[in-house]
Amino acid sequence: MDATVASTVILPWIHYLAVLMMAGGAVAELYLLRLPASPDVVRLLPRVDRFYGITAVLTFATGILRMYHGGKGADWYWHNGLMHGVITAFVVAALVSVAPTVRFIRWNRQLGAGGSLPSEAELRKTKALVHVQLTLVALIALLITLVARGYGAR
After folding, report:
1. Is residue 154 part of a domain?
2. Where in the sequence is the domain holding 64, given as residue range(s)?
3. Most exposed of 66, 87, 120, 148 (fewest Cβ within 10 Å)?
């Protein structure tokens, strides 16, 4: 395969798929958190969260690869102030996602140990954090679109 095709077609395609799957994972978490707490939901949340995490790593990795192997080159991106906003928002989203991940694992362990389900207050707080994650993903999409169009360049 031609290196140009790989960098201009295949890599962006994988990146876009990863972004869509990452957002889909977060939406699935939000959907599950809106359902009444049940053993099935508690068991499924860590698995969906693992999918979200894997696709987030894939999104980040393919994004970095696109910076270095895309048409504009890494130097162009690193000198764009909005690109720093993209990376910051991604890191903040990753940090926000830690609390739900820890909760999902804890809830699953509690269920296995004695059958207890999370409280409504815990579910509500966790839903709010997943909403923050999704909002940051939407912000990242806006910022990266601006970056791609040359806004924020020095």
Report:
1. no
2. 3-148
3. 120
The pLDDT value recorded for residue 15 is 94
User: What pTM was estimated for this model as a whole?
Assistant: 0.92
Q: Which amino acid is at 13?
A: W
Total domain count for the chain? 1
Report which residue type is found at 63: G
> Per residue in 30-52, pLDDT tens?
999 999 999 999 999 999 999 99
SS3 state at 124: helix
CA angle 133, 101, 104 (to 5 degrees): 120
Q: Give the separation between CA 92 and CA 102, rounded to whole angstroms.
A: 16
Which pair of tokens denotes residue 129? Answer: 């954090």
Structure tokens at 95: 């940090």
Whole-number average pLDDT of the chain? 94
Among 138, 124, 136, CA closest to 96:
136
* Displacement of CA 68 from its chain's centroid (Å): 21
Q: Tens digit of pLDDT for each residue in 59-69?
A: 999 999 999 98
Question: Do the domain assignments include residue 153?
Answer: no
